[in-house]
Structures are given as structure tokens and as C-alpha cells.
User: Fold these one by one.
Assistant:
Number 1:
Amino acid sequence: MADHTTIKKVAVLGAGNMGAGIAGQVANAGLPVLLLDVTREAAERGKQDLFKRKPAPLMSAAAADLIETGGFDQDLPRLAEADWIVEVVVERLPVKQALFERVERVRRPGSIVSSNTSGIRLSEITAGLPASFAADFCITHFFNPPRYMGLLELIAGPATRPDAVDTLRAFCTVQLGKEVVDARDTPSFIGNRIGILAMLAGVRAAQRHGLTVEQADAVAGKPIGWPGTGVFGLIDLVGLDVLADVARNMQSQLPAGDPAHPLLELPPLLKTLLERGWIGRKAGGGFYRMTADKQREALDLSTLEYRPAQKVDLASAKARGPKDVLAGDDAGARFAADMLGYTLAYTATVASEIAGDVRAIDTAMREGYSWRAGPFELLDEIGLAGFVERLAAAGEPVPALLQKAQATGDGRFYREEADGPEYLGFDGAYHAAPSAAGTLAVADLRRAGKPVLGNASASLWDMGDGVALLEFHTKMNALDEFSVEAMELTLDRVGRDFQALVIGSDAPHFCAGANLKRMLDAARAGDFTFLDGFIDGLQHALMGFKYAPFPVVGAPRGLALGGGCEVLLHCNVLQAHAELNAGLVELRVGLLPAGGGTKEMTLRHLDAGVERGFDLVVGSVTSSSAADARAMRVLTDYCAITMHRRRVLADAKALARRMVGAYAPARPAVVNLPGPAGRAALEARVAPQVEAGKMTAHDAVVASHIAAVMSGGAGGEVTEHDLLRLEREHFLELLRLPPSQARMEHMLATGKPLRN
């Protein structure tokens, strides 16, 4: 991989929603960024807007300190300071070219320049500009919002320096955490070329089969692996005006014979909504809207009037996957077959025109449109033979790429071989699909051999170089008695055969906590002996990690809640994904953290008083980022942050290797705590919130138990094991209470906390 560290400062031209968002993501990565707009005031407004947006573009308020602002007239010469200049102004070719002429006069030779255009082709932008500019220029198409959307489409021209492209690809991958996809210089590139067509196909198919907007979105969501917004909800989110602009741009740029043209002409329904200004959420409504009293309404597609949103009762909306949807025979199944038939056939038709291989297209749709599976992965899932049969039965042409896939004998675009995964190339042959440089996955270890040890809930793997990996693999990686057993076996095995341990997995989430159903069932059965043993075993295992004779590195990404957060609190150091959502949330289910979490939040906040730790536990506060988790002291100063989620395990292994030799376990803590007086002081923090209606009566009960632990019981000199004993005792007391059991049951049934 190219040296991404050569980019040390970035300049962003344009402080609108997207430009400021890109500047914010650069600042999130810890790099200084110069944000310029027409005036200094406009640039500063763009920066300040970052604090108001939701979801938050910044991972911490401190990141904004890395953003300097300025105006084009006064500050454009400062572009000479930047290693990468990214333009994000209005989508008008003359405006972009005029700005780039000015940029070329002041930038440092060899600095990289890019445009964030979503549809203007690179060849059009560079026309008439100097060869020196074209050599350093490419397109970097971020998806909005830049912090949260994983995709970045990278488009190079025939004159672009390869080393510039390699450097930018490496920087955007490692520093900005993006899934960089190389796209060809074609209209709307990959993501929007396919995504816009899919939305328009969905609108026409819904009307053709007489579906309501709710029915269409219910089918075109989880059942087929698309986001819950479906088709109409996604148009509301993106904005009908934006969709129309992209469609018009594609119409003007695509060759006359492109099969997308009939679909790109907006249907009367969409034209009417545009005329009325019903363009989506930003206008107060589109296909859906919220009334003044917060009631959701949907647009009736026949009358074009709003009515209360309706429940969907279609078998296809309850299907477990796209194959099941297409096997159905109701209107929703016919709608899905129509929409997917067009989308997948069109993708196969233009695939070699827009990308270098099918993997790039699948990645673009997963990361840019949040599809669970990309188009070619979807074809493998639903079965290519059946899909082709449906095309033929409908009298539609079968794209040449699908014919090649059928001719291979495998009839698949992806396959697993002894030497690793392969994908079908546009040449009709299979090619190796190795993991990207700097990444490591449990799937790679699984292909190479068997786990060192394991059971139904967890496995221990050999990562190589003396480092072991403990992987949880239950639903949401929830902890149960088998997880605890695996932790205890891991401590023994790593101590004998390895030099370091990493805890992590390929799953989207690190661990959602303890198995709530298992605990509730045991409590209602009166099996408190099991529960006491489970908590005691969890505490013993986590203390084993904390004071192991070898370094233990937590590698979390996604959720690390409750017991999952407690695992992290007992690792020696963390290599965390930047988007870490961690916290001790047990109060929401009427309990307290009893795997050492209450203990750790006590110890980690002693220097400034335990009140801050108490507030975090009682408030069930969760981090919105790894930087936020550092402020909560879930991460310590020694912990590290990885921006790209698929690099977390590799970075964690490297960190573990660096620790070997220099690592020495700490000594268990002994502290002085205030006892009953301290408990009363902590309880006093809760009383006003109960009186104000911000906390409930049972919240106060749970908070009192938390206060008892964090004040050290009777007080005085207290060891970590004393705090663990207090945790266990108070946890079991709470678990016996009907209001706590009611909270647990409600969470299991609804996924939401019960405020009793």
C-alpha cells in the first residue's frame, strides 16, 4: 500500500453540507484541514453547522479545533500548504473549471487535487486545463453523510499519476476509514448509476402491481436485504429533487442505446410531486410526512392525498430473504421480481463499462446504498439459473455476463476454493480474491485451519506470530455460561502456548451484553445458584484478563454494551474502531453491571470523584464514537483507534506484538471508599431527577444499589474483589425484583426499555 502519511494537511473548497462534512471527517482522523468558501463568513458558518447536524458529523467537539476557515478571495494562496485539495462546490461544470483555474495558479506542484462531483465526468472537468493539473487530478465521490457512509468512489483519468491515485486510495482507506472503490469515468459512476435506476424501477413496479407505499417499502427492505427505508422512504431521505437531477444528468450523458433511458424519464407521479414541492424529509414531506401531533401519514398513490400510515399484511413482507420473496405469489413478490429483474439485469449489462470487476460493484452498493448483498452476490443468493429463466419467460434479453456465468458450470459469481475465495471476471474466468492489504478476518483463519479450542459460544484462533484471537460467535455475541467457559480455557491455553491475546471477531458488533433471556429464565425458575455461579465465573475470567501474564488487547467495533463493555474494561489496552458504541446500560433492564463494570467505573474515576462514573452507569450512557468512549474512560490514554473497520483485527494484532516483551501486569487495586455517607451522596444525585420525572421510581431503586457498590459497602479500605462481591450481591437482589424482571421481559419482547 502507498504511503498515506505523505498527506499531512487537507484543503476543502466549499463549506456546504457535503464540504463541511468531508472536512469534519478529515478532522475526525486527527489531521488539520483548511475549509474555504466564497467568503470567510460562509466557511465559518459551514464549520459551526457541524455542531448542529444530526447524526453528528464530528466524533468529538475537539475535532473542530483542527478545522481552519477562510475565503476564496483572501485565503486561496494558502492552498500551497495542502497535500490534498478536494473541491465540493455546486455541480456546475463552468463553476468547477473556473475554480480549478485559480487553484492551479496557487497550489504546490505535485499536490493532489480532486472533485467530489457525483455525476460530472473527469474528462469534462479537465478539458482545457493544463496537463500539470490533469496529472494530479482525480474524482473522489464521497457519499453523504461522509462520516457514516462507507463508500468512496475513486476515478482516475488517463493522465492521472498512478502514485497520486495510490496515495489517495491509501489515505482515504486508512485515515478516513472509507471503502474505496475504483470506478470508471462513466455517467454517475457505480453507486448512483445502479441505485437511481433501482429506485425508479421500484416506483414503476409498485404502481404497476398496485402496491401502497408502505407495502412496497416493507417488501423492498429487510426481505430483499435493502435498508428499511425501502424505495419510497429512500427517495424521501435522498430528496426527490436530487433523484430528478441525477436522472436528468444520466439522460443527457448516457449513449442513446443504453437500456436505462425509458426508466430515466420520470413518471407522472414523480413529476407531480416535484411540482408540489413534496420532495421528501427536508421539505416536511414526500411519500411520508409527520403531522403536528407526530402521527405518520403516507401518500395514497391513486388520489395523491395523505392518509394515516397503514399496517402491511403481505406474506412477501415477512419473507426471510430475497429467494423466499421471489418464490412467493402475492403482489409484493411480483413487485420484487419486477424491480429486481430490471435492476440486476441492467447491472449485468453495464458492469464492465462502469467497473473493473463485479467485486467493485457489489462493494459500491453495500457501502453506498447499504444493501446487505451487492447485485452479483444477490444473484448468487437467489440462483442465477432461475433468474435467467424468469428473464427469458418475460421475453427480456439475457445479458452476456450472465451467459458467461452460466457457461462456467458453477453458475456463480463467487466461489470458495481450497486456496481461497474467487470471483468471476468479465473474461469468463475465475480470479483469486485475496483480502485487502492491512486487513485480517476470522474468515481467513477459518479457511486456514481449525480453532485451537472452542464451544458453541466462542472459539480461540491462532493469528500467527504468537498471538491468539478469542472470538465470540453467539447471536449479537451475547455472553452466556459457554462464553465464560471459553474465556477460562483461553486464559490457560494462551498462558501456555502464546505470547498475547486479542479479543474480537468479524461480526458487526463486539458484544451486546449478557444473554438476557438466559438470565430471566433462570431467575423465574428460581435458579439463583446458576446465576450466582455465572456472574462469579464471568468476574473471575475478566479479572484473569486484566491481570494475565500476557497482554490482552480488545478489538471492538460496533456495539459493546453491558457485559461486552465489561470485557473491554478488563483488557489491558484497546484497538477500537472509530465508530465504537460502548457503555454500561444494565439499568435499562433493572440491573447493575456485575461483570466488574461498576468496579471499573469506580476505579477509573477516583481521581476526580466517583460521581462522574456513577452518572455514566446510572444514565446508561453510551459512546457515539471511540473518541467519546475515551472521554468516558472506557478507553484509556494507551488505547488506539482504527478508522477502517476491516483493519481493526490486524491493527490489534500488531499492537499486541509491540506489547510483547515490554508488558508487565499491573497489581490489583486497593482503594479507600466512603461507605454509607458516600452512598447517600450518590443517591442524592438521583432524587431531583425522579422529582422532575426524568427518572422513574425503579430507576432510583437500581441507582441506590449502584451507589452501594461504588461507595464500597461499609467503606474504608476496599479491594477489587470486595467490589466484585458487592456487585454480585446487589445484582442478584435486583434480579429477584418483579420490576426488574418486567424490564427484562419488555426489552426482550420489544427491544426498548420499560420505564416503570
Number 2:
Amino acid sequence: MTAARPARPTRPVRLRSREPLPLTLSWAAAILAGVLLPLAFQPLDWWPLVVPAVALSLVSLRGRTLPQAFWLGLTTGALFFGVHIQWITVYLGPVPLVALTLWMAVWWGLGALLLALAWRWADPRMQGGLGAFLVLPLLLGALWTLRESLSSAVPWGGFAWGRLAHTQASSPLADTTSWVGLTGLTFLLAAVSALVAQLVLHHRTLARRRLTIGGAALVALVAIPAFPVVETGSVRVGAVQGASEAGLLAQYERGDILRQHLDATQALAGEDLDLLVWPENAAEWFADEDPSTILALDRVVDAFDAPLVVGTVTREGEGEAYDRERDRTYNSLLLVEPGEGAVAEYRKRHPVPFAEYLPERWFFGPILDAMGFLELIPRDYSIDPTSANAFDIDGLQAGLAICFDIIDDRLAREMVLDHGAEIILAPTNNADFGRGSAENVQQLAIAQLRAVEAGRSLVNISTVGTSAMVLPDGTMVERLPQYEPGTMLADLPLSDTVTPGIRLGGWIEWALCIGGVLGLAALGAVRFSERRSADA
């Protein structure tokens, strides 16, 4: 009888590093990434495409020189933004689209430099399973997040449009924002994309294991439930979309926008409301100092015996005392109470640079004037950093986000952590972006993610759409089509639960960005030490 042979000890898998793609194929991968990525966002909402798109972008940078990496990254970013924000051309033409696209593409090029260095320094040193399929994808994900975070904040508040997280509003992964915030979701998507790239690059070595590894990563992400939110009550909210042409270049008579919202509000007549919400700019200019406008708003709140949150433009000086060159103008929300008039004001904290104000006007003013664009920004909306982004409405704490405010993670955390917001109101004006615009639904997707991240109901009410009421899990319970007057009415749950995504989101972002920099620096130090040893 033959004795059984002892089993051989299992050796750790050693990977054979594949050669980088030929430069021609790297260019093809970078271009394809830029073409695929916009499809993952609204209006198409093919959210699974974010993974192959990011994976292709990452693979295109592997083994490339720094100049090559910069131009590859810039190309991917330019193609992506050129499609993703094409709605900016509807009224303003191609120049703003080209300028903003090139600016964001430069950020992508700079981020590509870091990613190329990570590939160069880490890939040869991480040939074991743990390094190749955990450490390296995490590093690449952190560096992708670093670039996205910087471009979302620098300069002048940045442009936080087109973040990877924004693709996932209707996917099962939206729930993860309640744990790690929008930045954390971007990191997870980038890291999983890097893992997919590694599995494809090493498919021969891992023929039997790659599906297990990739499947386990996907299941782990999808299986994460939303952070449990405890309801503390409900509020019956009505919201009104006037279908008003309220854009920068729109031709309308004073009072038209107000009248359209007054007319649309009649559809709610007889309803029992706790709160009524109108869009940004619905009360037009200087509503707080115009007797006829205040009278009209007073009649609305008296008819419903409910407070009204309404958008208008306010200023520091009044009437003849106002000095256009000296006094400040604000994009604001007013809280109008029955029998009391306007009792509180919130001033927009994140106005849009080069649209609502011109940064460094002394420098950019002459340039835009020579190009014939200065007339589009005749005045600068001011920023009041002390303006609390919440209203106390008869004991209800309502967080406030005017249009572009909704993309700002810091403001979302402030309204919940500092002001105890139990619901989020997001009045907006999308009239500058045309009928059927993708901008409207892209902004709504961001609002949905914000609701999930904060664990709060959210009212996204626009002058022209797309307006919707969103539950804390991201579900839309009411929605209005674009460019049609209409109203929404729903009993929305309230909550005072503070999710980890809100409480820890800022710390998570800092940890990821600093971790990516330190990880890359450590690899650079190892490489420098190895080269010194080899030269000795």
C-alpha cells in the first residue's frame, strides 16, 4: 500500500508584471474613458459604466512618462466635461464651455501625473496578491479622490460637478454615502475600478481567482445598507414650480415671475399645509423692500395659514440709499410667516463664479469686456459667511441650499451639525440651461445623494424643473416635468439622526487625501533608497 504524499505548502501568488500598453493603445483607452464616463451620469444614468471608464483612464497612465500622463489625463477630462456640461452653451454659447472644460481638464492632467507616479513606483514592488489587489487599488483610489477634492474646492470654491459619486443616485451604492459621504463613495468607485484594472492586467495568473475577487468586492459594496435613520415626526410640505423664464438673459416684465408662481400656487388651494416652498428668484428683486410684493406674499401665507420660504434678491442699502458700487447684493431666501411678514433671511453661501459673480474683476473684467461677455455679469452677488443655512420654522429646523449650494459638502454638514436641520429645502433656478436640459436632472441626482448622505427628506423646487420631493433613502415621492407649472404636496418624514457620512465625512476626505499623498511619498522614498543602494 503506497503512502500518501504530503501536501505541498501553498506558495503566495507572485504576479508577472505585464508590459504597459503601447502608447497608441493608451491614447485609445484615454479617449474611450472620456467618451464612456458621461454616459454614467444623468440624463442617460448608465451608472455601471463608471467602473470601466475609470479603469480605462487608469490603465492608460500605466508606464507613461509624466508629459504623456498629463496629456492623456487632460484628454480624458476634456472629453468628459465637454459632453457632461454642454448645457452651458444653451444661452451663453461655446466660449464658457471651452473655458470651463479646459480648466477642469488641466486638473485631470495634474491628477494623472500623480496616478502615473503611483503606477511607476508601486507596480514593480507590489507583485504579491495583497499589494497588487488591495494596496495599489487603494492608493490609486485615494489619489483620484485627491484630485477630485482639490478641483471641487480650488479656486473660488471650485467646481464640484461631475464627481464620480454623482453617477450613483439611482444605484444600490447610493446608500454608502450615509456612511462615508460623497467623497468616500468617489474613493470606493475609483478603488474598485483600479481593482478591476489589475484583475484584467493579471488575468492569466489569476484565471480562477479574478471572478472571486472582483465579485467579492462588488457584493461587499452593494450589500452595504443605508445608515438607519430614526423618524421624529413629519411635515406636510407644498412646493410650487411656476415654469418661469427667469434666466440671466430672459425677457420678462417685472412681476411676471411672481405672478406665475402666485397662479401656480392656486392648485394647492384648500390644502392643509405646514410649509410652502417657492423656488430661487420666485419673488424677483428686493421683495423684502417692495410693498406690493410683500403684500402678495402675505396673502399667500394668510390663505394657507402656513409659512413660506421664497427666493429673492436682497441688498444692504434700500431704495435711493442703495449704492450699486458700494453696497452688497445677495441671492437670498426669505421666511415669510402669517401675520408677521419676512422674519428671517438666508444669503447664498456658494454663488457660482463667472456667473453670479466675477472673481478678481480687476483682472478678468477687461478680458471678458474685450470678448463681449462682461455684460453677462454686470454685478457681483456677495457672500455672507455668517449667514446660517437653516431656518427655525415654528420649531422645525429646515436646512437651506440655494441651487449651487447643494453641491457643497461643507454646507451640508453645517446645516445638520451646527443647526440641527431635520429636513433640507433646496430652491433653485434652472432657467439658464434650456428645455430638456441635462443640468436639471444632474442637479437633482446630486440632491438625491445629499438626502441619503444626510438621512433627510429634501425638497428640490425649481422655477422650471426638474422639481422633486425626495425621501431620506433617495426615493422620489413627487416629481414635476420641466417647463410646466405645477405643485407638489407630500407628508415628509423628519429626523435628527446624524449619519456617519455627515459627522465623519470631512475627516474621511482629509484622511483619504493625506493618505494618498503620504503613500505616494513613501513609495518615492523607497525608490530613492533603492537607487542609492544600487549606485553604492
Number 3:
Amino acid sequence: MNIQTLLSDKIQHAMILAGAENNPEPAVRQSGKPQFGDYQANGIMGVAKKLGLNPREFAQKVLERVELNGIAEKLEIAGPGFINIFLAKEWLADNVEKALSAVNFGIKTNNPQTVVLDYSSPNVAKEMHVGHLRSTIIGDAVARALEFMGNKVIRANHVGDWGTQFGMLIAYLEKMENEQASEMELSDLEAFYRAAKENYDSDEVFAEKARQYVVKLQSGDRYCLTMWKKLVDMTMSQNQLNYNRLNVTLSEQDVMGESLYNPMLPEIVADLKAKGLAVEDDGALVVYLDEFKNKDGEPMGVIVQKKDGGFLYTTTDIAAAKYRYETLQADRALVFTDTRQSQHLQQAWLITRKAGYVPDSFSLEHENFGMMLGKDGKPFKTRSGGTVKLADLLDEAVERASKLINEKSTALSEQEKAAVIEAVAIGSVKYADLSKNRTTDYVFDWDNMLSFEGNTAPYMQYAYTRIRSIFNKTDTDSTALANAHIVLTEDKERALAIKLLQFEEAVQIVTKDGTPHVLCAYLYELAGIFSSFYEHCPILNAPQEIKLSRLKLAQLTERILKQGLDLLGIKTVEKM
């Protein structure tokens, strides 16, 4: 049930009947204050101006034609032409009942799509660090929301698994295996990479072998491909440990690294040249884009093949877009990388469209995000100034959550306490990020994220367990509860019912704009409205009919909180 869409359709139809041209924008929004109704139609004035009519007179014509019988209990014209909509209690109660009994609360998209999500994207032979966190968890939350709405989601982990550095890495893996006379396990990827680089810089024989291995790898040599595959597998098995800890839905089957597109690159460059898009400039092949200007105001040149014949990230991103449309047959492709990649992707996708590799109907979207900052306002680093490993960050989260939960919880078994610590630790790191608008930088603050007050994971997880405790205290028969009817007599009950029915609106915004913070804000508001309802509307000691009605409101709140947190990849626990 998307109330906003329902009301928009009804108001729009009435606007057309009142004389507006096709597809007028009713601009229906949730009201900020109860006295202005539950929703407002704010588009009347703009349409009336185009028609040369007085906005209030046009609003009156719309009210005379709109069909909201049984949905709205009152409609009123306010100010210069706003329409305030007050929803009917009986309609709200009926739709809460339907949401309780329906699969996924009756939420599903009318136009399911195939959507490719490109997120996480770590590099082979390097450990994941905090720089990978935002891409990984924001992308995963959007993937979960899209699937929940009924779309087919293809996760694409665009791993950095190709390039000249692999000659060096293969040569060093060979050296380590020979010296140890056994299969080597990469337990410390960073140390492995550093040692390979040191050998390359200091040993010319080693460096020459590394350069030869690059050529062999790129020409498909079986031995080099086998060694390369070992490096990829060892890296991704370590990364999977991080994904599992983060409760992220990526698996090794979702890896679509740079190497996947490598065979496509020569053909793409030849085609760009044949179409006159790529021209030779000082030995390199360059696409000049009028849409982008350099500092001298001239069309900006984008290199797609270097003088030495090597390809660039732009060429790979053109191939990736082409592959996602042609091979994966997607309707949308979303790429989650930081804001610094914006111009690069815009240029790659512009070339893709100019070449005719994807139609205008294929949506290419860069879901860019800001940086994680320390309290000093600078990029988040270790005290010594180094990059923070993701595994170390999660270890510290568990350590801090353990201290917090041990101070607060005494009635939990050791098994229950361990589950709470893990849920709070990982949930806090994720929620602190997801609750911020992804397009902005945010300050990483342990104290704030582990607080049981405010818009935090511990607060949301506790709100869920608090509702669970209500059901643990009641002996109400489940059949009696299922057969009971919801009756909204108090303002707090009505406010809760409306907020519950706005869940779909929040999820739809996440799927449309890639903004999980909207869902976080919704869940936080829902928890607050429930808390106010619980304070003013007694449940367990209320008369039986009222008790059952309020229990059903509590039941739907519990389910939506759990589902909403699950869409964010955050675990709930039954007791805290």
C-alpha cells in the first residue's frame, strides 16, 4: 500500500477532469503537521497558473471531482490553493489488517526490472579496508530493497583483478611456493603485496620475470592463468569472511572482475575508431567529448587505448555497461563508488551511448557517496596515519560492544549475550553509515554509534526487543488475535497506523534513489511514534477488544521494524 501513489493518482485524475492538461503534477506529500492533514496536494497552484485560473477556485473544482470516498474523511483547501487530506480511520484500520495478513505486507512493484548493482569492488592481493565499507553496505541495502519489491537483482562485485601488477604478484607467489615447497596460504595480503613490490624494485631478474608474466597472462598462458586464479580465490575467500561478518549478501558467485571484460576491449576500441569516435593522438586513441571542456575551454579528450596498446579503466567501464545491457539483459545498472569517480563514469557512459552500445531506455546510475571522516574532519585513519583494515574495525566494534553489553545486561545467558554483542557491534557500524545521506561525508564516532539513545542501531534493536517483550508478557491466544478487528479511537493509534502504512513509500524511495538513510529515518520515526503510542495507550491491562486491537498494531510495528532492519542488513535479537 503506497498511500502517496494512491492519492496522487486520484488527485491527478480529478485535475484532468477539472480542465488540466494530461499528466499534471499533483505533488502529493506527507504533511509535516497534523493540523494540515495527513497528506497535502501542493501542485494545484502551478497547474492553475498555466490555466490562467485562481488557484483556490481550481482547487475547489478538483475537490468536486476527486473520488476519495471511504479513503479520506475530510478534504480542505488551505492557503493559496493547497489541498489538505485527512484519511479515514476505518480505511486506515482496514489496510493495517491487510498488511498484517499479506506476504511482504502486500508490498511489490507493478513493474519489476532486472537491475545490476556494482558494489564493494575490492582489489586482489590487498585486504579490504574502511574505504570499501560504504560501497559494500550501501549497495547491499539497496540490493535487498530492490529484491524485496520484487525486482531481479544481479550483484556485480567489480573486483580489481587485472592489470600489470599481476606479473609481479604471480612471480612472487611462484617464489614463495618454491621456497616453501608447498601450497602457500595468503594469511596476510598486505604483507604479501609489499614483499612482491620490494622484490620487483630491488631484483632486476625478478622484475624481468614479472614483466614476462604480464605478457603471458594477457595472452592467455595456462600456467599464469592458474597462478592468477589462485591469487583471486585466496583474496576473495578472505573477503568473504568480511562479507559474512557484515551480514552482506555478496558471495564468490557475484564476482565480476575487470578480467571479465578484458576480451571485449580490443573489439570495442576498434569499433570506436571505425565509428570515428576514437581518433589517434600522439600514438594513443582518444575520444574527444564536446560535453566536457578542459581548462582552455576545448573538448576534453578521454583516452581509451594508450600508446603502448594498454587499455584504461574507461575502456573497461564502457565494456561493463555494454555487457550489463547485452549479456545480462538488465533494465538498470547502478554503480556504488565514491564521489571522486563521478566525472570518470559520466565520460565512460557518454561514450557508451554515443557508440550505440546501450539505448536511452537503459538506465546507468552512479550512486556516489562521500568519505568516512575521523573526528578531526580528515579521512579516517589509524593513529599512526595508516589505512584502517576493515577486519580490524569490526574487531574493535565487537570489543566496544562487549564492554557496553556487559555493563548493561545481566539477565542474558552467555549464548544470548554473544548474539547481542555481535548484532550491536556490526549493526552499529553499518547503521551509523546507512543513516547518513550517502552523498555527504560523515564523521565516524564510536560513542555516538554505540549509544542506546538517538537514531542508532542499539536504539532501533532495543525498540524491537521491547515490543517482543510485550508479547512475552501476554497469554493472548494467536487465533483470538488473528480474528480481532483493529479499531482506531485514539490519536496515537491513528498516527501509528498511518506511519505503518508509509513503509512502502520509504522502501520505494530507497529503490529509486539508492538512499538507505530514508529507510533509517522512517524506522526511527516509527519507533518514536510507537513509543508515544505505548505510553498513552495501555495494552496489557486494556479491555479485551481494545487490547487485541492494540496488540495487532504492536504486531505490525514489530514485523516492520524487523523487516526494515533486515533490508539494511542489520540483525535483531529477541532479548537485550
